[in-house]
Design brief:
The structure holds 2 protein chains of 2 kinds.
Chain A: H1 6-16, H2 20-37, H3 39-42, H4 74-110, H5 112-127, H6 130-140, H7 145-154, H8 158-172, H9 175-182, H10 187-195, H11 200-223, H12 235-243, H13 251-278
Helix pairs in contact in A: 1-13, 2-4, 2-13, 4-5, 4-7, 4-8, 4-11, 4-13, 5-8, 6-7, 9-10, 11-12, 11-13, 12-13
Chain B: E1 4-8, E2 14-18, E3 27-38, E4 47-59, E5 64-68, H1 75-82, E6 90-95, E7 98-99, H2 105-114, E8 115-118, H3 132-143, H4 148-161, H5 178-190, E9 196-200, H6 208-225, E10 228-233, H7 236-242, E11 245-250, E12 253-259, H8 260-265, H9 270-277, H10 318-321, E13 329-332, E14 335-337, H11 342-345
Parallel strand pairs in B: 5-10, 5-11, 8-9, 9-10
Antiparallel strand pairs in B: 1-2, 3-4, 3-6, 6-7, 11-12, 12-14, 13-14
The chains are: A mainly alpha, B alpha/beta.
């Protein structure tokens, strides 16, 4: 692929940057990345440092987001929580994209019984209520961040598989695929070199939206206590801890809540911006 | 040009006729049939669409066969069958005497190197996400025809041969016009040094002035590289310009086949006559009457009984033409036609 994409990205960028919301989403995502990577350098506190003299302090100049019931700095914990969120978001979405793309490509390219088999499997997977499936699996296994990422990924690929299959079905009929077969290209080569680069658009959109979705699920699981386990900070489990004190320490719940909201919003804006920029119907 | 020529009289009996020399055909189709299942909406039995219905064709090395007929007559399907991109429902195609259906892996690779295709639509035949150099060079990579050092040079050579240049190597298809794209498609087909090129309507999507350029390019290539061409087109003027031999197809069947001169000089089938009468004339006063066919091409799902052309033929005589399908017979030396009355009609 190397340099092939230059033109594509040129047009894409031209259209993307005129979409103000998408650019805001993009900047927010970049900001989150910087936050997560530089986390230890951005705050004077350690996320797990307990301070019995500074319990449940409201937001102030020294603790912008206040402190929690053990005297830990909430801002520090929210920033370190961003690391977990990004990790879970990207790994889970990555797994989903890999499976979805592979199944969609195979299904669309080969068709026939393989297509029927894979698509019925997709239908079955879509029948499971995802959150309960995850609950059941975590109940059997121990709650660990790796299991969570894998399970979110394993239950989130079906939409993309359908999208990639539909795109593949249409691209398969183009003459350049016939031409590739005529020059003796193998099925693998045709899928990797001729079809995949032409279905990158929906994959990119789905991956971006998938990151936001995965972060939301992780937060929900951590909130329910079966996600990321304390003392490792995650937005979900900070929120859980906060709900005990919500009557007199609103900052414990508000800040991680807002963090989840804004992060998911940022990914959705970015994803939809990418989708709009790639939509051929808007092309001139 | 040694015109080799043969036709089948029946499924069983094959007759070989050669006018000048008797060479082994490069590729030949024997009683080739291809039907597609057409599924009706929701319920009901699926029907058979007979796109190609018992076609016999052969191509000698270095020969150009023009396959003409109106849209939907099955000529593109014949092209895809010849390319082994579709497999026939019945009958077979022999490449250098070997049936395509039972080739070994190595033979298949060799076939892919020998037989190439040029497509009709220059827009959908090039991958929009690949650079021109990669499109033209891909066959070289697949068949291991050039090492890293020669690769660039060979691709440039191919681009130059079709009238493009080294400076186009890193460009994308969208930066080119239809005619240039068609040249890129031709360069890709030439990359493997093929012996046979199947050109499926290679100029019909282009502007008239560009058509001439591409036709001339094909003509040059044919002479320089001693290529065989199966030239599929509905434009008889182009067919006449390029072909050594012409076959006219109607509803999945060959209705007339002969040398270029014979078909355009004195055709022996009413359908060919009608097609020829529709060709634009340089001197309209030349006095050929335009024959307007009634109706549309009948559906290949339910082709008419008897002669497939009788429903639109201006000379059809009901009892015979509507019941007995006329066999493709040699009416004159090397000139075959499928019509009960060709002797009476074209005296």
């Amino acid at each position: 692929m190397r340099l092939h994409e230059t033109y594509f990205y040129e047009v894409f960028w031209k259209r993307f940057r005129t979409n103000r919301l998408a650019v805001i989403g993009c900047l927010a995502v970049i900001f989150l990345f910087i936050l997560a990577i530089l986390a230890p350098h951005l705050t004077p506190y350690h996320p797990d440092a307990i301070d019995a003299y500074r319990v449940l302090l409201p937001p102030s100049a020294s603790h912008w987001f206040g402190t929690d019931e053990l005297g830990r700095d909430v801002l520090t914990r929210v920033i370190f929580g961003a690391q977990i969120s990004l990790l879970v978001g990207f790994v889970a979405a990555g797994i989903a994209v890999l499976i979805g793309t592979l199944i969609g490509l195979l299904s669309g390219y080969y068709g026939g019984w393989l297509d029927s088999l894979l698509m019925r499997f997709v239908d079955i997977m879509l029948c499971f209520p995802t959150i309960f499936l995850i609950l059941a699996v975590i109940a059997i296994l121990e709650p660990s961040i790796w299991y969570i990422m894998i399970i979110i990924g394993l239950t989130g690929w079906m939409g993309l598989a359908r999208l990639v299959r539909a795109e593949t079905l249409s691209i398969r009929e183009r003459d350049y695929i016939l031409a590739a077969r005529a020059i003796g290209a193998s099925d693998l080569r045709i899928m990797a070199r001729h079809i995949l680069p032409n279905v990158m658009a929906p994959i990119l959109v789905s991956a971006t939206l998938g990151v936001g979705g995965a972060i939301l699920i992780e937060s929900a699981l951590s909130f329910l206590g079966i996600g990321v386990q304390p003392p490792t900070p995650s937005w979900g489990n900070i929120l859980t801890a906060g709900k005990e004190y919500i009557e007199f320490a609103w900052w414990l719940s508000l800040f991680p809540g807002v963090a989840i909201l804004l992060t998911v919003l940022a990914y959705n804006l970015l994803g939809e911006g990418i989708r709009d920029a790639l939509d051929p119907r808007l092309q001139r | 040009m040694g015109l080799y020529y043969h036709q089948c009289v029946s499924t069983v009996e094959r007759t070989f006729i050669s006018s000048a020399s008797m060479t082994l055909p490069l590729i030949e189709a024997i009683q080739l049939k291809k039907s597609f299942d057409v599924k009706p909406a929701a319920f009901g039995k699926s029907q058979q669409l007979k796109a190609v219905d018992g076609v016999n064709l052969s191509l000698a090395p270095g020969e150009t066969l023009g396959l003409a007929g109106e849209s939907g007559c099955g000529k593109s399907t014949v092209g895809k069958l010849f390319m082994n991109l579709l497999s026939p429902t019945a009958g077979q195609i022999l490449y250098q005497g070997k049936p395509l259906g039972s080739m070994t892996k190595d033979e298949r690779a060799a076939f892919r190197k020998d037989v190439q295709m040029i497509f009709q639509d220059p827009y959908s035949s090039l991958n929009p996400r690949m650079r021109i150099g990669d499109i033209v060079g891909e066959p070289l990579k697949i068949h291991g025809l050039a090492n890293a050092a020669q690769y660039r040079e060979r691709v440039t050579e191919l681009l130059t041969r079709v009238g493009l240049g080294a400076e186009h190597f890193y460009r994308y298809p969208h930066e080119f016009s239809g005619g240039q794209r068609q040249r890129i498609g031709i360069a890709r087909a030439l990359a493997v040094s093929p012996r046979l090129i199947i050109a499926d309507e290679p100029v019909s999507a282009l502007d008239l002035s560009i058509q001439a350029q591409i036709v001339n390019l094909l003509q040059e290539l044919k002479q320089e590289l001693a290529l065989s061409f199966l030239f599929i087109a509905h434009d008889l003027a182009v067919v006449r310009h390029l072909s050594d031999r012409v076959a006219i197809m109607y509803l999945g069947k060959i209705v007339e086949t002969a040398s270029n001169e014979a078909v355009f000089g004195r055709c022996l089938h009413p359908y060919t006559e009608a097609l020829l009468s529709a060709m634009p004339q340089i001197e309209p006063a030349a006095g050929r009457k335009r024959i307007i066919l009634k109706g549309d091409l009948p559906s290949p799902i339910a082709p008419p009984a008897g002669c497939p052309f009788h429903s639109r033929c201006p000379y059809a005589k009901p009892p015979l033409c509507a019941t007995v399908p006329p066999p493709l017979e040699e009416k004159e030396s090397g000139h075959w036609a499928a019509c009960h009355f060709s002797q009476q009609l074209f005296r």
